Amino acid sequence: MRVKNTAIEWETGLAQQFDDLPQQHEAATLGMWVFLATEILMFGGLFTAFTAYRATYPHAFEVGSEHLYRWIGVGNTAVLLLSSLFVALAVHAIKHGDNRACTRDLVVAAALGVVFLGLKSIEYTLDIREGLLPWYHFHPEGANDAATKLFLVFYWFMTGLHAVHVTIGIVLLLFFAALCRRGEYDTEWHNPIEMVGLYWHFVDIVWIFLLPTLYLIKPG
Amino acid sequence: MTTLPAPLSGSEHNYLSRDYHVLSWLLTKDHKRIGILYLVTITAFFLLGGLAATLMRLNLLTPNGWLVEGATYNKLFTMHGVIMVWFFLVPAVPAVIGNFIVPLMIGARDVAFPRLNLLSWYLFTIGGIVALTAMVRGGVDTGWTFYTPYSTGYANTYVFLTATGIMISGFSSILTGLNFIVTIHTMRCPGLTWFRLPLFLWSLYATSIIMVLATPVLAITLALVAAERMLGLGIFDPAAGGDPVLFQHLFWFYSHPAVYIMILPGMGVVSELITCFSRKRVFGYSFIAFSSLAIAFFGFLVWGHHMFVAGESTYIAFAFSLLSYIVAVPSAIKVFNWTATLYKGSISLETPMLYALGFIGLFTMGGLTGLFLAALGMDVHVHDTYFVIAHFHYIMVGGMVMGYMGALHFWWPKMTGRMYPEWWGRFSAFTIFIGFNLTFFPQFILGYLGMPRRYHAYAPEFQTLNVMSTAGASILAVGYFLPLCYLIWSLRYGPLAKANPWNATGLEWQTTSPPPEHNFESIPTVDQEAYAYHLMEVPDAR
Known about the structure:
The complex is a heterodimer.
Chain A: H1 6-12, H2 21-56, H3 58-66, H4 70-95, H5 99-129, H6 146-181, H7 191-215
Helix pairs in contact in A: 2-3, 2-6, 2-7, 3-6, 4-5, 4-7, 5-6, 6-7
Chain B: H1 22-26, H2 31-59, H3 70-105, H4 114-137, H5 150-154, H6 159-186, H7 199-231, H8 244-261, H9 264-278, H10 285-299, H11 314-342, H12 351-374, H13 376-382, H14 386-416, H15 422-449, H16 463-493
Helix pairs in contact in B: 2-3, 2-4, 2-16, 3-6, 3-14, 4-6, 6-7, 7-8, 7-9, 7-10, 9-11, 9-12, 9-14, 10-11, 11-12, 12-14, 12-15, 14-15, 15-16
């Protein structure tokens, strides 16, 4: 068995069960992709159920969609895309050994995540005022049949689950930004930055699907 | 197989003797210790699930259900199903045997993500405790399937708590699957190519894919059920525009593949045992390997056969029926290949081999009766009868539990460094086989005659067969109780195990029994196929 110096291990980030950094990198990357596959199937269950009901009640779902604040949704899409850009820049920076730029980009990405949650909170507040919360003083204006309520159930459930993911992502981004600032990562060793980047892009992509699914049902 | 010198037996510094402190177990990242933690946990769950089954069988001794009331009976079969499916069968071979053996088999120091591995045990245990809390506080009466709208709108039992427990433990099986996929992909030792992998790993790999892709759908489905139950959202409530059959689709999208989570690892075990105890190369290696992947793939496309009588369209039922026949093909390929491996082998009937042979016979019966159920016409006749119960117990108990017991005996020397008493092993294997058949064969007949499942009372003409079944269950209970006793006994009094007591191929036998903390003194290399028994010298003395 190879005996490894713990100081070197800490410095390089090589965990004891691996032979070398490339093997560890391969394992971490594959592990993250497998995890994201799990996540896709989890959201997939919701998208499937949503699609089944949308096919059954097309009109009621359009009505439900019209209650939503489309421009907040679109604006939030821009915010998330921009934050994904900064995560990509952070990964690029650390690959070139620029710790400062990497830290900065991660913090900016996290800040944009907070902006997303802020806008979402404003939207949720407006929704609740209009009585769009299915289990609390539910009284939307206009046509109000059971299926419209069903649409809103999925709206809250899907955007809520997504918001949980965004929150986790922000915590992770800030955590690894702090480690990056301490100089934990360099051109050789930056697995965690890449992995948190993959996760953040995933969170972004989920929203890219949520926007048309929920907000852009009716053309025009 | 390796270029290592013969390892010493009974090493002073093995993973067990490294540290005896309780915390060294509770905070361990060693895959072997985590396997042992799982072993202890699922054994406790097995006893609880078995207790529920015992009470059910006792109650069914008389047609009027003398022991418990109807409502209690409902809770008992729910408890039995929930515990046995999620807290015993799903983790049995993957989390106990797989955790212990996978890194050893591939010549690695540990799994790819040891911390996640430990986390998975904690999630499993917490999920189990939450589900048990629900059972202690009053139980659940929905059946393990939580069918809506009963579970969401009408049942006034602890549905929410039980569903939460199952969801939490679901994440543990996702983490286990993720760990195995990555470990098998990236941590194989030099020379161990994909087609030199022991077939156990192919089947665990296929199992892991199912765990990773199916379990999240269960999680989100149970979350929807829980949300609907707490907030009355109407997601699956017809009165509010929801569709209860949608729940069934989502639930079986997980739960049918989960059937393969519960049988594929057992099939992998049998491939190891059959080759070892007939001293032969496996027949049709790549057929067995790819049939595992085929089962995983087609297993995702058959869920609709649970809903033939639930208002599914005729055309989709045709498709699901056809696909259900197709998924039987790779299973049959395995059975034929195992039998061909036995042909002209020098067979010896040690305890693990008895379990493997039991597996083949009982699984075949379970599989063939599955074809009855895949037939659209026949299914209407036997749907929700004891025929279904007998069918899936032949797969789950006759197959998977047999495989698990075989694996436990086969790898027990490696896990503990002690041999179990062979005579008692054989005796209990026979007892289990006889008890199992006496319990469940009458249920095929009962189901065919029309006795519905999930009733605490039945028509008097069914009594004889029910008494037979209960008698069989008591023999089965003895059969399971014996290994519990003699395996614990062997921990202290069993003879010390050699590094390779079965003269088996496989890297796990190249290290000491029990293995050192990091598995191997030096990382092994592999230069030949798995199961090269034909190249092995004749063992001097077993």
